[in-house]
Amino acid sequence: MSHDRISRRGLLKGALLALAAAPAATLLTREAAAANPLVDPNDAQAKGLGYTHDATKVDAKANPNYKAGQHCTNCIQYTGKAGDAEGGCNLFPGKNVKAAGWCKVWVLKPGAKLG
Ligand code: SF4
Q1: Element containing residue 98 per DSSP (H, E)
Q2: 35, 69, 79, 112: least CB-packed within 10 angstroms?
Q3: Region 37-115: CATH code
Q4: Which protein residues are within 6 Å of ligand 1, measured from CB?
Q5: Model pTM?
Q6: Tens-digit pLDDT profile for residues 17-35
Q7: CA distance 90 to 88
Q8: Ligand 1 mean position to 81 CA, how many Å?
């Protein structure tokens, strides 16, 4: 009988610890992303990909694949949170891109819309 109590107590304690740890892990991830430096558009990789901090300033003639409404936020490679000014991109590990940015390998994120 007391063994069951301990087990239930142990389970409850574990569940509470897990609940307490989840927001902390989220905060750490957010803080890590927030601490990442912004990609320099003049970096060799960024230049090669035609990355810009502001998608509205993309040279459409030089980038015929670009369409208005494309930006990092609705790109499949963007890992930032909706509403944040910047976030991670799978192509630039350890760095952030601007939510309003764009590069040549932009692909629409499933379920996202242009705009
Ligand atoms: S791959 Fe997507 S998220 Fe990354 S810089 Fe290019 S457009 Fe932005």
Answers
A1: strand 96-98
A2: 35
A3: 4.10.490.10
A4: 51, 72, 75, 77-78, 89, 91, 97, 101-103, 105-106
A5: 0.73
A6: 444 554 444 444 555 566 8
A7: 7
A8: 14
